[in-house]
Design brief:
Elements: E1 5-8, E2 12-15, E3 18-20, E4 32-36, H1 42-53, E5 58-60, H2 65-73, E6 79-87, H3 89-101, E7 105-107, E8 124-129, H4 134-140
Parallel strand pairs: 4-5, 4-6
Antiparallel strand pairs: 1-2, 2-3, 6-8, 7-8
GO molecular function: inositol monophosphate 1-phosphatase activity; metal ion binding
Pfam family, one: Inositol_P
Organism: marine sediment metagenome
């Protein structure tokens, strides 16, 4: 598409030359979500996620965590639930900065900041969203840690 997402810390996030910001939709509105689930424990995770999935308007699976973070940053998607332990900080660092500069949030499932993960060898699941969805998602995802 020749689109370029980029950000500069403290100066915002951009799509080409246009400043971008996350959407302000909440769960009562038609939100787009992305899920990334491992085949291991798939049925168990789907069962645990079912109350949450029922609230989604649309779910898609793109396959690129960094691009998905950029789409949340630009407001074309509202949240990403990545339960696979396949991403390292170096895999999502650019998308992380773009999302944060656009007003989005990203954390591990237990609420820890992704920035606290300094080792490039640590693989982690995470959730990313606009600010209005973050509390709702964190509350609902507590069941996955049990």
């Amino acid at each position: 598409t020749k689109d370029i997402y980029w950000a500069e810390k403290g100066n915002g996030a951009f799509l080409n030359d246009t400043k971008i910001h996350v959407s302000d939709l909440d769960i009562s509105q038609k939100c787009f979500f992305e899920l990334n689930l491992s085949m291991k424990n798939l049925l168990d995770n789907l069962q645990k996620l079912s109350p949450l999935i029922k609230r989604f308007y649309r779910i898609r699976i793109l396959g690129s965590s960094a691009l998905t973070l950029c789409q949340i940053a630009s407001g074309s998607m509202e949240a990403f639930i990545n339960l696979r332990r396949s991403n390292r900080l170096v895999d999502v660092a650019a998308g992380l900065l773009i999302l944060k500069e656009a007003g989005g949030n990203i954390s591990t499932l237990d609420g820890s900041e992704i920035d606290d993960i300094l080792s490039i060898n640590v693989k982690f699941p995470f959730i990313a969203s606009n600010a209005r969805l973050e509390p709702f998602l964190k509350e609902k995802l507590v069941n996955l840690k049990k």
